[in-house]
Design goal:
By secondary structure, this protein is mostly helical. Helix content is about 75%, strand content about 0%. Helix 1 packs antiparallel against helix 3. It starts with 13 loop residues before the first helix and ends with a helix.
Length: about 190
Amino acid sequence: MTTLASRPHGTRTPLDRVRRLAHWVRMLTVAGAVTLPLGTLWVWSSPDRIARFVASTLGLNATALQLAPSTSWLGALVNLLPVAVGWFALLQIWRLFGGYMRGEFFTPGATQRLRRLAMALLAVALAQVVARSATGVVLTLHLPPGQRRLIVGFSSHDYVLLLFGLLLWAIAHVMVEATRLAHENEQFV
């Protein structure tokens, strides 16, 4: 067995490479946990940014919007809903890759975190649709009846999140089955 001390300088084992990758994924997770809410609050802190990013995305006429501070705060709160669900997904990634750093690959904990991540991605997609709809209501609430909007839409980003959520869900089920079969095979030997 080769130990870290007896390996030639610069030679890494597959587990070392996994640990390094897991470390970088965890650092990106921290970056996401910080930038997602700050970015949302940054956009909603300026009427110009709201008009540029939010209103244009929803197809609203930015010049017709009259944004009161309460509108900005309510819009920010609504848009923090997918961020909160995203934090749960990031927590699962953090824990999953922490286990990978410890060499925990086909464990019940790893599959449970993978399932939770899958559910969180599905929930983020749903939360984004809800937040987009609620944002349209918040931004047009001050308009007279007949000009207010309820915008319901499903974007390609939502589709990709749903697809990846389902993919991770399936992989988690495959991992559970593979672990069970490996355990059964060990019993025969």
